Amino acid sequence: MTARTIILTGASDGIGASAARTLAARGERIVVVGRSAEKTERIAKETGADFFVADFADLSQVRRLAAQLKERYPRIDVLANNAGGIMGDRELTVDGHEKTFQVNHLAPFLLTNELLDVLTASNATVINTSSVANSIFAKFDINDLDAESGYSTNRAYGNAKLANILFTAELHHRFHAAGISTASFHPGGVATNFAAESTSPMRLAYKSFLKRFMLTPEQGADTLVWLATAVPERDWTSGGYYVKRKLSKANKQAYDAALARELWERSAEMVAEDSDRLDPHA
């Protein structure tokens, strides 16, 4: 059986690196993407994977990454949008967007859209790493996606993780008939360096005795690996949000089809360039 091509972003550490190891051991062709060249190359050498470096706080690097992937891989079986994190004080990227929202949502939205022709032709699976924070912290305002009002690190993160779920639902709505299957998932509280750069109170748990009670990266990657290897519509339902391999209840706003559609359209406008505008109605 020919190895499938699986692209994992946020794969230089944590659950992304763990998933890369597990999937490579199963004979899959792994492509790892990370922000740190040194750490990403180390995981690539360990797993025999190809690797690319991109900082999702710069959308030009996301476009470059997409072009490189399309040139190298005529078939992509799985795209795992796993890069993300909780940030510190409100900060704008070079693209003028609130950093938490861009890194966690706009960048994977752009990457997926840039790869849509390859993904549809490949009948690909698109997996989006979300978080239970979508239910705990989100206060989603479609008119304030860059968090100009009432910013907090936790709220910004919760909103971005809710955006991941809304994006998953709308991606399913628009492209499932064309061949794409998609799911979002919560990996659990995983003992990683996830919140190292954050000012959120959550970072304290990752540095205290509480860390010993958290999941290992291998445990946190389990649902990601399952979604990447199981059969859509037989083993899991496209468009769903999963926790521990089971469909789970998300924030009530996650089920608002009109909100999902409007988020797609506004996201397309936010990432568009005059010379290469995404069609928000695609």
Describe the secondary structure blueprint for this structure.
Layout: E1 5-9, H1 14-25, E2 29-34, H2 37-47, E3 50-53, H3 59-72, E4 78-81, H4 99-114, H5 116-121, E5 125-129, H6 133-136, H7 153-175, E6 181-186, H8 202-207, H9 217-220, H10 222-229, E7 241-243, E8 246-247, H11 257-271
Parallel strand pairs: 1-2, 1-4, 2-3, 4-5, 5-6, 6-7
Antiparallel strand pairs: 7-8
Helix pairs in contact: 3-4, 4-7, 4-11, 7-11
Task: Summarize, please.
Helices cover 42% and strands 12% of the residues. The protein has 282 residues and is an alpha/beta fold.
Structure description:
- The chain is of the alpha/beta class.
- Helices cover 42% and strands 12% of the residues.
- It has helices at 14-25, 37-47, 59-72, 99-114, 116-121, 133-136, 153-175, 202-207, 217-220, 222-229, 257-271; strands spanning 5-9, 29-34, 50-53, 78-81, 125-129, 181-186, 241-243, 246-247.
- Strands 3-2-1-4-5-6-7-8 form an 8-stranded mixed beta sheet, with helices on both faces.
- The two termini are 34 Å apart.
Shape: globular
Tell me the structural class. Answer: alpha/beta
**Residues in β-strands, percent:** 5-15%
Q: Helix proportion of residues, in percent?
A: 40-55%
Mean pLDDT: 91
Low-confidence stretches: 204-213
Rg calc: 17 Å
Written as H for each helix and E for each strand, in order along the chain, the element string is EHEHEHEHHEHHEHHHEEH
